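Quick start: read one record
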Amino acid sequence: MAIIRSDPWEEESNSATALTKRTETKTRDRRLFRFQDLASDYYQVLRQTSRPRICRILWGIVTGALLLVTLFTVGSLLQEYFRHESFDKTSTSWKDNLTLPALTICSSNFINYTRLREVMTEEGDSDALEALRRVLSLLERYDGAGDFFELYEANKATFKQLVSYENRRGSIQLRFSLNLDAVIFGTPHYFFDGRGKNITDPRKHMQTTKSGMCLEFNNDETFQQSNGGPKGGFSIDLNTNVRDYLPTTSSHGFTVFIRDPDENVMLNVGGFVISPGTETFVRLTSKSAKRLGPPHGTCKNVPNIYSKRNVKFESIRECWQRQVIQAMIGKCGCIPIYFAVQMWYRNRTNVLDEFIELIKTVRAHKFYESIYEFTSEEDVARYVSMTNGNASRTKQDNMISEIERLKKMFVKSPYFPYHCSLIQERACTLFIDNEITKGKLKLEKCPEPCKYREWDAVISSIPFPPTPTYFNEFMIGDGVRTFADAKENIARLHVFYDKIRVQETEQIPAYQTHNFIAEFGGTVDLFIGFSFFTLFQLIEIGIATCVLRCRKIKISKK
């Protein structure tokens, strides 16, 4: 058996070779850690001297082109991301039942002229009655083309006479408001879901607006339709009582407002008119919307200070109403009676307090000086005494009694002296409308709320009552004596869903953060092989470099 002996010189040579290899490996590993680990492909094609020079030049050109394309593409992605565009996602969902919107129904005639004429004649105020007729006629004919103050100056004595009359006798709008019992026609008064309902307490359906006393339905959202078509919706017969219209009322019928139950309607904005002698069908489509705020959208939730049920945010219509009423109070120096009454009964006295402070600061305004007269304490005491006396001799039933009770409560409040008289309010409304039309008064743009409901309506109508036979069979003897009277006074209204479904619209960002990250990563990985893993390597190299430099500094100091 052969014995192999190791040569010590050879062992020493092998040890030196191994040490050299280990040193080279460490050097190579350190170099790779600094560069090759980060971009080994680019090192191979650009820095490796074993490759032909022409190849490295060509690859350098390709690499530069890829970098330029990457920078351009990333710039486009950033531009698209910061554009913050959005799109509407619409879907339709079918329901077992669907809540009908709330309705506000107002007569186009806001005062019972028959009762007004009788009372003013009995009280010996025939001159004031004639003055009222003349002023309302002037205001009806005013088209906004001329200067309103010129119209006022030419009729100052008549305007002053009516303001003085209301200071002595009380608010014409409250004293001679419509009797809603007479407006609601038929027995039962309305149908919902094919069943008749009697309105036993009109107070639950009463609201003061610029159009006078109006009917309100479904504020509690109890009307839920489960079957499509007119038979499953809401139906009501209305009596216009044309005989009680003011001579200056330009149109006969009712204005109907479709609204959210939490929305408050005070001005004639966004309604549609139904005429007597017609049966009107309002076919609804329910819609709900969710909008985005900045930067993707423009929605904004504005606190609602006039809402019925302390709802937090106001609608676009309420925003417009708020600005108009504030302008009327600020420029005319008085609070519209319908607004004052609503705020008083909702216990929003803080709102009225703020407006009274505003009124005290605008007394030098031209319109204020020319038409406003402050109601004295004597006038208030006289009116309180008058309403106390009238309450015991009311001829109408519960509606008039309720109005009398509300009048007595309001006129005893500290806000009554600051309310607008009828002529002040009507004249101020024309003045503000004229200022807005001419661009002298600019209202702020009302933002849409971030979440709301709305209804699209398709309206159609046919003659009503259809025939004398129908009238004689179903309608005669209920306040209308002849077929001709019914054609002149009665209107039938149907509000219903044709299909029990909701169209839901949601505004969604078109280019969200995760979309940007995905496209950014795909782009840079496609062109230059960059990824989050590469990013973590850069962070690691940066930390390691800092650590090594810190060590070198410490060693040099020692």
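The chain is about 50% helix and 20% strand.
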